[in-house]
Batch of 2 targets.
Target 1
Amino acid sequence: MSAVLPLLDLLPAAGALGLLVAGRERGERIARPLGVAVAGLTTLLAVLATGAAVRTRGFALQVDTVWVRALGVHAHLGIDGISAPLVLLTAVLVLCGLVYTWRVLPEPGRARELVGLILVLESGALGTFTALDLLLFFVAFETVLVPMWFIVAVWGDPHDPVARRGAATTFILYTALGSAVMLAGLLLVGLRAGTFDMTALTAMHGAGLAAGTQVVAVLAIGLGLAVKTPMWPLHTWLPGAHTAAPTVGSVLLAGVLLKMGTYGLVRIVVPILPAGARAVFPWLGVLAVVGILHGALACLGQRDLKRLVAYSSVGHMGFVLFGIATLTPVGINGALYANVAHGVVTGLLFFLVGSLKDRFGSVELSRLGGLYATHPRIGGLLALAAVASLGLPGLVGFWGEMLALLGAYQAGTLGWRLLMVAAGAGAVLTTLYFLRMLRRVAQQPRDPLAGSVPPGGGPLDPRSDVTGFEVASFSPLVLATVVLGLAPWVLLGLTDPVVRLLTGGA
Amino acid sequence: MSLTQSVDLLAIAPPMLTMLGALVVLALDLLLPRGLVLARALPALGALGLAALSELALASGTRATFCVPGPGAPACSFVADRLTLVIGLVVLAGAFIVGLLSTRTVVEDNLPAGEHFALMMFSVTGALTLAGARDLLTLIVALETVSLPVYAMVGLRRDDRRSGEAALKVFLVSVAATAVTILGAALVYGTTGAVHLSRIAAALAQPSPAADARALAVVLVVAGFAFKVAVVPFHGWVPDTYTGAPLPVAAYLSVVSKAAGVAGLVLLLDLGLAPAAGTWSPILAVLAAATMTVGNIFALRQGDAVRLLAWSSVAQAGFIVAPLGAVGAGGRGAPSALAASIGYLAAYAVVNLGAFSVVTVLARDGAGTALAGLRGLGRREPFAAVALAFFLLCLAGLPPGLVGLFAKVRVFGPPVQSGVGWLAVVMAVNVVLGLGYYLRWVALLFSRGGPDAQPRRVGTADGLAVALALAGAVVFSVLPGALFGLAG
């Protein structure tokens, strides 16, 4: 028994509860410092938990108590090599987001409510990544919905209230439909197998579940996870939600919420329903590749920088799904790597888009230009994030997608190799649109008719370059981009043993 | 065989106490001047509290009374077991909160206080009897005892034409339902020769030459009860009746009287007619699917809080009976379906009552129940807004409303377990349809704008009612086991 994981999962929610009972005025005053303090403590706990996961074979820091006896729900928590990176990523991104929010509070203010919702969301995400009980996983998975819905609907794009509410509602209805079907799938697995415990189910490795049952369960659970990831063609909620969300919302959506879908596939579907996965995943591979190509092509046509980054997410998550779909250890390792890489890099990209929005009020590509000249530091960071995102070797974006493609090659059949070629073409297109974006935004001078610097319109001085609080909130992500790019074994050493276990000890 | 029966008084203590309460209220009403509302309310609330205590005293074991010996095990008409306890507690807690809310409504709507509280207590007596009823006749008589006083309660607002219309509507529908039920019950008796649920089940398990008559009997009884529970297509009376009735009475209809109807249906099907599940389970699956879908689709378009809650309670009835649609032939899985239905019912009762309480309190002083009037409530009255939002999220089944989420988990179990996949899919779609309007309402509470009302003074009884429901919803969200464990 160890109190680390329960504390890790519940500390943010406790912080939110504290803000609720603090009352309006006091809560407003203490919200931002309290938020950063709680997120900082949570990050420390996450580091501690990750350390334990590194040292332990199997699950570290396990806790298992009965929560709802009548329904067989256990509060069973644990952390291992594939959950630890995501736990750490979640904690760091929330901390970065709250540091950022300290300085730039999106319209209409109300720091107490915003910080409280972010903390509840963090609890839900950490719970999802540490749950070892199917129903507990479901509860945690659902916990992030209402906070994110509020964040987009209330603090989203202040210029277009109808669009932001529409985007928030589309997001929650899509996801809720997915998760209601997923609940049916989880119940099917748990009731037929006689346990909801993921460690027991993983040990069974599909024994005791008929192949037909497994296929139905994979389809039902996969639907819920695929909506969240999102997989083409279920991604249509994503661009709207990303575009309408405030900066911190976009960062958490990309870096935390999307990861919950792919994590669920690796944690639940691959080890617990192997026969079903073998039957269904080739199709997942096809849809993933369509998503990669669709995301890339859509990016080529975007006029808004934020929308472009949002669509690039569809492509990147396509790579993650593609790696998982190969069902090879290499492919899944690659997928998990790309998962983290996407969280780091796209999180950074959304932060930078937010920086531009805070200065210029809008990030329409036609209004931007010449960043290298006017804002060299923001321009440089944007270039770094963009080339990391397109998969330049030596940065974090490279390894995951390379390994995912390698996994497809190793899967052996002609079909997988064709898919690999198509996915590779998607990677080329990704390079194309990111470089075009960089040329437009950073290298080319701005349209001379519009003046040398766009007019202000955000809360920050349009002439200022990166400020101190931005350095503070971006630097962990920049660091991760470079370090994980140069030393991929740091992460692969964590995930690989677990992946081999989950795929049947190959 | 002795001619006098020995009666276990403790087993029947809860309904006896509430009936005594009703009589005390009536007697006091004759003696005391008209204006003293509390003198009528307190005895009623006290009797409810005593009845709840007696339920808890019964919690340790199972007691049965009004038994007849016979071939095989004796058959009993009244049993106080876990099921009786859960239904009884739901009824008592619901009635207690309705009673609290009524104290001010009686004054505001100029209702005759004595009649109102006495009628409610008679109806509660019926519901408690129904919870323990284990034979067909007791079941039907108890169900009528629940509903007869309700017609009068709906129509007590004498100066309001809508009130009378609402009462007439619910009366006519209910009488038709009763007639059908009694016809079905007669056929059941005719084809099985038994009135006790256990003996009916035993008889139905044997093959019979009158199989068609048996099937007809089962269908008629189910249809009759479906009327009472307002299952589609027998739901038409609900919205007008809810809006025409005084608000606490609408809450009573949506929680206590619905709980009684559902309990009756569940008891009858799972204990008495389980061997004939092949006949009724597919029917109930279709009825449940239709009920939740129709209720949700109509709820999506409502602009009035009470009408919205009325339609949402139609939809929720669909979820409550859904597990019954997944009982296999011969009654396989009947116990788990029963536990799922009762568990969902208990969770629904707590949170729906909470939502009704907040709406009732907010509608005081002629504020009305239009949804538009609740815009921006979060700024004006943060406590009421947070409480209402919590109840609505519980009804929607989303965290932090965990009691609702686990209730959904509970009712999804039987259809998934027994492979009625299409019903599970319809339920999943309906969860999302429900979200559509619950979330729109939550969004409204916390959006900008809205009327600039003076902060109101919330009465003690009103505040207590909301606080009790909120405490229940919060406790059962943290410890859902307390609720679902009790329900089996």
Note: The first strand of chain B starts at residue 63 and ends at 68.
Target 2
Amino acid sequence: MSSTTAHPRLESWRRGLYRFRQSWVSVLGLLIVSVLLVLAIGGQHLAPYPQHIAGLVDTSARLQAPSTTYWFGTNELGQDVFSLVVAGTRISLLAGMAVVIVGAAFGVFVGAIAGFLGGWVDEVLMRLADLKLTVPGLILAMAVAAALGPGIVNMVFAIALSWWPGYARLVRGEVMAKREETFVLASRAMGAGTNRLLWKHILPNIMSPIIVKMSLDMGFAILTVASLGFIGIGVKPPTPEWGSLLSVARVNMPDYWWTAIFPGLAIFMAVFGFNLLGDGLRDLLDPKARR
Amino acid sequence: MVGYILRRLLLLVPVLLGLSMLVFAIARLLPGDPVALAAGPNATAADVASVAREFGLDQPLVVQYWNYLTGLFRGDWGVSIFTRRPVAEDLAAYLPATLELVLAAMLLAIGLGIPLGLMAAVFRNKWPDFLARTVSLGAISMPRFFLGLVFQLLFAMWLGWLPLSGRFPLTEDPPPQITGMLTVDALLSGQFHAFGVALSYLALPAIAMCLSPLATIMRMMRASTIEVLQQDYVLTERALGLSQKLILFKYVLKNAISATLTVIGLYFGWLLGGTVLVETVFDWPGIGLYATQAVLTQDFMPIIGVTLCIGAIFVTVNLVVDMLYGLLNPKVRYQ
């Protein structure tokens, strides 16, 4: 066993890390996500044909099958599919992250206020969240994104609009539980105001479940971004987004299947990786969910 | 129990009212100009004004909402600016196709998910369990539209086993309309050939759609079965020498299934909203495809109609799920 002098929090982290390493699926998830992050950051330098990402058309190399020159083949414009897929990593990851962060920030804000103030404020905010949960998120996002026009920022906003109620509910419950604890009472007795109590004392204590939910949501956010791209709303070509790459490539099937299969596989791998990692993180940070 | 149902039904009214208000507000806040779009590219200002008058879009927002709301109760869900047909008529035409797809996917998911989850729990930490869990995580991560495309490529284009897209061939006579669900109608009227044809069109989209609810149901079922299997009464039954089959199917299943039921209810609504993608891939003429067209043309009456319709079905299904709890678990009391 470890030394007895270890700081208790450090010790629990070490145990968590041990559990994380024990489950090969979490490690696999971490591996996939690391590769995606590397591709997202250094994509421009890693793609073999960066000029194709910028939109260069090469008609002499149209629709070539996968080979050692073009790993994933080329599309109807003669562009290297591998380069496009690599470039799409950054867009998907950024958009997914933005959706989760914006949705979580708004949800945490609403949930914290509802849980802390209670009464009619709580009632109104939570009924609004309930209402949001009965509206099909994808259709709502479609409507808003189509109205706002194409573009990554508009799409992120449209998706985040239907993303916050989950966080609001989670945070509300946690805040209500923490509100009654002695340390909150103590700081209140020392004269801390609502703002200070909520954001300095209560919120830092409920970060774990929020982070767990964010990591579990990441895969689904990437999936939603790709879905909107596939329908033809959101990011539009020539920006290489996975969903729109797949949608454009549909007409190339069945003869030129590689133009569709590889962007699709990229979406799958990204969602899979983040789901595995999210499961692992939940075990690490949320002892209640462990069995 | 009757009082409880009545109260829940009454509670649906404010929920649906709020829903209609919310969606109406969002649809009207769209910066696009549906009137100009409907009037056509060569319309004069007078044409645009007359179209706006025709659809009542020149009136204040509150009046428009009130007109819409009172219209709902008369069965008038507004007119699609794009197709110029009543939305209620369009919905009635497209909804059965979507319901057929969602019900088929749910049936598959429940029919396979529950036994697979039970199996994974019984063989906990042995290879059937690992296999089922890994495959289910993969299934949850698989985009439905991509899976649909792969199915089309494999089974329709390369192998030629099943039709590529659509709902029923134009060259054949469809079964007489009873429910609007072609497979059900064909069975009801005894047309087994038409049933086979309709089923062959339904198969790929339904399988593409069922995977993620299937995986979730399986995981829920596994977790709750493991919990029930550790209860004292199961140990007692084992000690009494009851057979594994009897314990599992008579005592464990019933207790393990109630948590799974919630997921089933939630997934039903989720699938209704999520048919958009599968319907786009397979050109399935349901409300998802209808909604996509409406969104792309900024035609807001159909958008409100579809959202309200799905919302109403969603809350109703959840009510039914709550009722079913009582049937499965007599300890549940309705107050």
Note: Chain A has one domain: 3-285.
